Amino acid sequence: MVPTTHRAHLAGGFTLIEMLVTLAVLAIVLALAVPSLSDFIDRGRLTSAADTLYADLQFARSEAIRNNQNVLVSFQSGSAWCYGMVLGSSACDCSVTNSAAANYCTLKRISAADFSQVSIPDAASITFAANQTGFDPVRGVALSSGAVTVQSTQGKQATVSLALLGRVSLCSPAGSGFTSAYPSC
User: Fold this and answer.
1) Would you give the end-to-end CA distance of the chain in angstroms?
2) What's the rounded Cα separation, in Å, for the pair 140 and 125?
3) How many Å apart are CA 50 and CA 116, to the nearest integer?
4) Is the pTM for the entire model greater than 0.85?
5) CA–CA separation, 81 and 91 (whole Å)
6) Per the count of CB atoms within 10 A, which of 9, 37, 90, 127 is most buried?
7) Average pLDDT over residues 157-185
8) How does pLDDT run across 33-74, given as a tens digit for each residue?
């Protein structure tokens, strides 16, 4: 028979060495998982911004047809990037936040604050003439074709393109490291 003091020691719990080994294994697993999690979050932010722009261009087309008026979409790049929509033939300025201003985007306005750590980095990221496009109310065709490229803080990119017939598409530029959600451009 085993003495009671030895039996109490066996049922006690973890030893210091067992706990240190467990913590070391946990630290290794976390060191491997954190970069993957960061990449997953970065891709999610980029996908969200690109999908929203895609849906908003389709919304602008449907609003043009529904209201029987042109819908103009204006873009602005840089750190304070934005885009906005307005009914009619006069473009709006998406950087204007005062709804009483004459050039306010009355139909919809999206800004950099809506999508943290995603940007339209520079003027070359917008290929629409004069940084704007729109839709014809009769046939729903685009007034001009072009594309907008959005970029994450880790440099991944997604491009939302608009064809003259009004077709909106999403793709991932070659070499941008973001090919899982969209086909290559």
Assistant:
1) 76
2) 24
3) 13
4) no
5) 16
6) 127
7) 86
8) 667 778 888 889 999 999 999 999 999 999 999 999 999 999
What's the pLDDT tens digit per position in 5-33?
555 555 567 788 888 888 888 888 877 76
Tokens, residue 61: 């087309």
Angle at the Cα of 51 (from 91 to 161), degrees rounded to 5?
Answer: 60
Q: What are phi and psi of 153, to 5 degrees?
A: -65, -25
The SS3 assignment for 160 reads strand
Please give the DSSP secondary-structure letter assigned to residue 131: G
Q: Are 110 and 54 in contact (CB under 8 A)?
A: no
Ordered by where they begin, the domains of the chain are 16-67+116-171 (3.55.40)
Distance CA 75, CA 82 (A): 6
- Strand-pairing partners, residue 158, are 150
Nearest to 115 by CA among 150, 154, 161: 150
* Token representation of residue 132: 């704007």
How far apart are the C-alpha atoms of 170 and 54, rounded to whole Å?
A: 7
Helix then strand count (H, E) for the chain reads 2, 8
